[in-house]
Amino acid sequence: MFDFDSFHRAMAGQTVLCIGDLMLDEFVYGEVSRISPEAPAPVIAAKRSETNIGGAGNVARNIAALGAKCIFVGLIGEDAAAAELKAALAKEPRIESVLVADGSRPTTRKVRFVSEHFLTHMLRADWEITHPASGATEQKLIDTILPLIPRADIVLLSDYAKGVLTARVIRNVIDAARKASKAVIVDPKSANFAIYRGATLLTPNRKEFSEATRSRADSSESIAMAAQDAMLSADCEAILVTQSERGMTLVPRKGEAVHVPAFPVKVRDVSGAGDTVVAVLSVARAAGADWEDALRLANAAAAVAVAKKGTAIVTPAELRRQILPHASLAAEEKIVASGGELEARLSDWRKQDLRIGFTNGCFDILHPGHVKVLTAARGACDRLIVGLNSDASVKRLKGEGRPVQTERARAEVLAALEAVDLVVIFEEDTPLKLIEEIKPSALVKGGDYTREQVVGHEIVEAHGGQVILVEVLAGFSTTSLVDRARGGKA
């Protein structure tokens, strides 16, 4: 169960060793208004251009943007593009770049011509050599990488098939990382997943996965089936298949496959979105997130990246806004009534295939124990609904003198929390009727309950959902706080 704020703090202390194909990305923006008289081709009137650190270098930039440290190893030529990349990397305070030079190869450079008006790529020009690095350069890479592994919390291989990640380099790195008990995440390019044998996670896109497994990979079910043999071949713990607008499917070697839908965003440019995904996965795993939490973070980050132009980085603030979109709503916008208003929100979320969570309580005086349960509940879903006992309900349950605060005051305090997407006040003593209406995928309560004691567990489990019990924070109780405030002994 994921707490974004805890992740944000934890990721700043992580170090990712990123190895892969470095390239210089250039974007030329202009307007297309006519066809060339010399040939049936559009003429772009160039207005401006931008250059970025691309390829595996963009993975490194995304790692650094999240607040983590990146040790980056790449290959360059001895040319102007190499000098530009070295200068750009030197300006990144969280990236320690260790570049191997090979004068016999050009530095990979890609120039994209983009229509400013339509935001579509018209043409891409590549300067590159894609054959594997020479034996001498290969050895230089290995000698450079291996001493860096003990300094890293996790190792990431970003394979663009430009010659850096040869079979020998891959084998030496994975074997050394496993010997040092370091997880290895691979963004693969080869259709032979066996060359990445021993990696922890492979992250192919749907096309790459389909070619590697010779499967259609047209549904999460078919991906899950094909992934079993692929994981045996690669001896990996999990495979994550990215599917653009279809979302992502994670298949662990142990446990059930998890599919998350893509966020409904306006796509401006998909360049580098895969870089963002593997960067977030690496930092999240290094920071202690489990597979599903890391998957959901990466999915949210991809939505941010594709909504930007060019090869883009994603910051923690942008990631938070994507994960917690309702955090910016006014409190009154989050407080809804059961019935039509609630059903409208549920319908909208279900159309987006979002996972809906539910928890409930009186929340008379909000304390850290409540916050822990609410934060954990939000980490288990995409949207969290909190059922709040009405004043009359609290009085029946807690006795005279309660609640201390009115239902409206309690609802507004809850609605002000980032973790909470909706607050629904209910009149009954239990939220059973509300749970029947919502049919949540996750029903969350404090660990002082057993599963059988949780009201509505039968309803949730009958619809394929799960009951999640969160360990309570010792020393916090609303009743004892009220008694203390009123001069009691508690």
Automatic annotation (TrEMBL):
One annotated GO biological process: lipopolysaccharide core region biosynthetic process
Quaternary structure (record): Homodimer.
Species this protein is from: Bradyrhizobium erythrophlei
Function: Catalyzes the ADP transfer from ATP to D-glycero-beta-D-manno-heptose 1-phosphate, yielding ADP-D-glycero-beta-D-manno-heptose.
InterPro entries in the cross-refs: Bifunc_HldE, Carboh/pur_kinase_PfkB_CS, Cyt_trans-like, PfkB_dom, RfaE_dom_I, RfaE_dom_II, Ribokinase-like, Rossmann-like_a/b/a_fold
Enzymatic class: transferase
Region (Ribokinase): 1-329
Stretch list, region Cytidylyltransferase: 358-490
Enzyme Commission (EC) number: 2.7.1.167, 2.7.7.70
Pfam families noted in UniProt: CTP_transf_like (PF01467), PfkB (PF00294)
Molecular function GO labels: ATP binding; heptose 7-phosphate kinase activity; heptose-1-phosphate adenylyltransferase activity; phosphotransferase activity, alcohol group as acceptor
UniProt keyword terms in alphabetical order: ATP-binding, Carbohydrate metabolism, Kinase, Multifunctional enzyme, Nucleotide-binding, Nucleotidyltransferase, Transferase
Binding sites annotated in the UniProt record for ATP: 205-208
Family: In the C-terminal section; belongs to the cytidylyltransferase family.
Protein name: Bifunctional protein HldE
Active site per the UniProt annotation: 275
Domain Carbohydrate kinase PfkB positions: 16-316
GO cellular component, one term: cytosol
Top-rank taxon: Bacteria
Cytidyltransferase-like domain segment(s): 358-453
Reactions catalysed, as given in the entry: D-glycero-beta-D-manno-heptose 1-phosphate + ATP + H(+) = ADP-D-glycero-beta-D-manno-heptose + diphosphate; D-glycero-beta-D-manno-heptose 7-phosphate + ATP = D-glycero-beta-D-manno-heptose 1,7-bisphosphate + ADP + H(+)
PROSITE patterns noted in UniProt: PFKB_KINASES_1
Metabolic or biological pathway, per its Swiss-Prot or TrEMBL entry: Nucleotide-sugar biosynthesis; ADP-L-glycero-beta-D-manno-heptose biosynthesis; ADP-L-glycero-beta-D-manno-heptose from D-glycero-beta-D-manno-heptose 7-phosphate: step 1/4; Bacterial outer membrane biogenesis; LPS core biosynthesis; Nucleotide-sugar biosynthesis; ADP-L-glycero-beta-D-manno-heptose biosynthesis; ADP-L-glycero-beta-D-manno-heptose from D-glycero-beta-D-manno-heptose 7-phosphate: step 3/4
